[in-house]
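pasting for ref
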Amino acid sequence: MPDEIADAVEEAAPVVAVAEAVEADQTISEFEEVKQDVEAGKEPKAKVRELLGWFDARRRRTGVVKRIQSELDEAGIVTTPSFTKVWIDAEITFKKAPEEEELPAVQDDESVTSSEKAAKESNILISRLGAANCGVVSVNPQDTVEKAITLMLAHDFSQLAVMTNDRTLNGAISWKAIGKRLSHENNLVEVKDAMEVAIALEDTESLFKATKLIIEHDFVFVRSSVDKKVTGIVTATDLSEQFQFLSEPFLLIGQIENQIRNLMNGKYPIETLQDVCNDTDPDRKQRIQSVADLTFGEYLRIIQNPENWEGLGLRVDRGVFCAEMDKVREIRNDVMHFDPDGIDEEQYDQLRRFSRMLDELEVLSR
């Protein structure tokens, strides 16, 4: 019997080896496959959201970006366009990084300071908005006004691009433009009869500069800086929705900070509040006269001290409370960077839960 078992094991060994090889192949991460493809001379593509997922991330937080960029640099890979500059669902191409001698020489331009370069890098680009990447519905200048009206009604749009091809933006037609023309004449036949000037920005334009133009003109078209194709249209409505999407976390965090101040107010002497300040900034330390003068991180440092925690008089676990508050601190840091990626639903829930808990604790502490 033992010999039979040994023979069976020996026969099964190749099968096991194959199974282990298959399993090993399956455990190669998507990013490892990308590295292998690039090394083989290929140029694989993926969406930014997929790239983030390979690193167990959902947003382009500072730490995540640094980690991914480090991995790309180590592998000698660049993404085109940069994964930090485009919409989160935009497609990027992985390419072999150019050799050092192939890199363009740095121009000795004294007119461009290092701070200006840093500012340019830190700009939030209009390309980060979804609307800038979703394409446009267009009509030809010789199309009938009725066709333009029908398309606007069908898509619930207020304006359309007027184009002869995907790179030539002749203008725009909108309900406002049609109304203006009809107030002066009734014979609107072709789109060109009601066409107005269209503002087009490259996808490398700062979102904040674009915002001024959108407020002034109601909408702007976005053009790819690579192939010059019109990639989308950003309207005042898109902008409002984006700011609403970003404003709720600000409001929640502001509410949480007020709740924390209410819990801590009057519980500590000024010396305790000043002790959590950075020792390298004595002037600021002297300006601390109340809880309202502290930062969120300083709130946390105060209550992490067991003696200070006792001063709050809360009958909850300090470790759990501080851990939950630290999660809020991390979310707050992300929100304050005004990232168009926004925060995910799990982070929203964290803010809402913590705010509800503070509400309940404030009621119980009265």
